[in-house]
Specification:
Distance between the termini: 22 Å
Strand order of the largest sheet: 6-7-8-9-10-11-14-12
Strand content: 25-35%
Order of helices and strands: EEEEHEEEEEHEHEHEEE
CATH architecture: 4-Layer Sandwich
CATH class: Alpha Beta
CATH superfamily: Ribonuclease Z/Hydroxyacylglutathione hydrolase-like
Largest sheet: 8 strands, mixed
CATH topology: Metallo-beta-lactamase, Chain A
């Protein structure tokens, strides 16, 4: 049984025997509570301060994957880093971004980091079939609601988890999740702070899971 927990912004904790944390922030710098997880594996999509605070969730033996392309296996988890861009100008404005695809308990996850453009066909081919997609929707620095839906239509995940949007306290000038949800035709589940997931429980039709702190 896997657990998914949200620590705000783009920081998620995926846990079975291994605790994997994506894009940790330190809380204080962006106005929301700091993550409380202590990770076995940390995935960092790019080195901006609201995504790369590894020290916040590290312990002595934590494995850190920081903006790394290519395939690797860490503590039994298959991880692939795929290059993309933080903007719609091939990285000229905000640099590169690494998309992470990883597989835990036969479920394929994809964390898009601060994706700021529609991925090209080569990137889509590398992603393949995705069960759970973490996608930024807040605009300004990343995909906005409209762009997010274009990416979802291309990737076709089973579960869509919006992230990187305005919540109470967050000091970044981005939009809330509402405009993203308004464009939706799928079932929406408000799942609270964490939820358990198993392969045989993946939905037949796509669902949106909205987390809260």
């Amino acid at each position: 049984m896997l657990q998914i927990r949200w620590h705000g912004h783009a920081c998620f904790e995926i846990t079975n025997d291994i605790k994997l944390v994506t894009d940790p922030h330190d809380g204080r710098s962006i106005g929301i509570p700091a993550p409380t997880a202590k990770a076995d594996i940390i995935l960092i999509s790019h080195n901006h301060y609201d995504h790369n605070s590894a020290k916040t969730v590290m312990k002595d033996d934590t494995k850190v994957v920081n903006s790394e392309e290519g395939k690797k296996k860490i503590l039994g988890i298959e991880i692939e880093g795929i290059e993309s861009y933080h903007d719609d100008a091939n990285g000229a404005k905000r640099g590169k971004n690494i998309i992470y695809k990883f597989r835990v308990e036969d479920i394929t996850f994809c964390h898009l980091g601060d994706l700021g453009c529609i991925p090209d066909q080569d990137t889509i081919n590398k992603l393949g079939e995705i069960d759970v997609l973490f996608i930024p929707v807040g605009g300004t620095f990343t995909l906005d609601a409209e762009g997010a839906w274009k990416v979802i239509e291309i990737i076709k995940p089973k579960i869509i988890i919006p992230m990187h949007y305005k919540i109470p306290g967050l000091s970044l000038p981005i939009s809330g999740v509402e405009s993203f949800l308004e464009k939706n035709t799928y079932r929406i589940l408000n799942v609270g702070n964490e939820i358990e997931i198993e392969r045989n429980e993946l939905p037949d039709e796509p669902e949106i899971w909205v987390f809260t702190l």
